[in-house]
Amino acid sequence: MSELLTAERIEEIGSLGSESPDPAALVAELVGAVDEGRVADPDDTGYALLVAADILEQAGDLADALALATRAIAEQPDEDAYARSVRGGLLLRLGRSGEGMRELTELRPLLETNPDATYLIDELAESGHAETALEWLTGALDAILERTRTQQHESEDAQDEAAAMIYGLAQRRHDLREELGLPHDEYDNLADRLRAASNHALDALDDGPATLLYWPQAEYDALLARWPALADSYPATWDEHRAQIERALTEASGLGGADLGVAAGSVEGLAAFAGNEPIDEETLDEYADSLDDTGVTAWPPGRNDACWCGSGAKYKKCCLPRSRG
């Protein structure tokens, strides 16, 4: 029987993408595993199809990419918003503007409730509809700000979530307007004020350093093999570890944190740092502090840049959409 297709292998394929000498073989591996029921985690079925669609899109085969995105929606209809946004963007790039806009417009309300839904803006901007993207961002900001003014008795968690969404939407809008060469307006000024305020916010937080200790996959496996007692301090799998890091950084950013980053640890480096001292959570924190000035990767990367986790895949295709939960 052929091997199961793991999440790690899907990401490895995604990092190769159309730059592989044989992207068609990568697509065949992904689709074949889905067809034969060989995806290790059934929840990754849609993910595998979307990675295959992305490879085809990069190679210029938009029609086949659209077919795979449509299939991803059918395979996992309960979690289809991201796949539908991909399909909407592909329809726009294929010149089927009416269908594409209908698909994306149905998802537009997510911008007011889901902090991850800026993938809709990416699809619009990358498909030549930047003005519409700006209109949607402005509308979402209007709605959330009005909601915060009129709903004074929301829970503290709801208020924090609204603040994080205002920050993220304002920054995305600001960046897009800069790309288009547009002059500052009221919301751009708000984005600047929020960003300036965030430069000092972490000093008031007691939740930890601006730089988080992250273990690349090989180092993660070696860490738990060398010091099994650390299993109580870390998730069961490397995939859960990097998702945990992404969530912590997202939460810190929503609370106003700036200059965030990840410092990649190494087992040999930790052993040299600790000497004969026991490896416990306090030692890990001190080791992370020692890495602050070296080997730090700024977070977040650009959506189209390589993901901070080292997979080689684009951030928007890797930890950004897969870390929530």
From TrEMBL:
It comes from Micromonospora parastrephiae. It comes from the Bacteria. Gene3D superfamilies: 3.10.450.50, Tetratricopeptide repeat domain. This is SEC-C domain-containing protein.
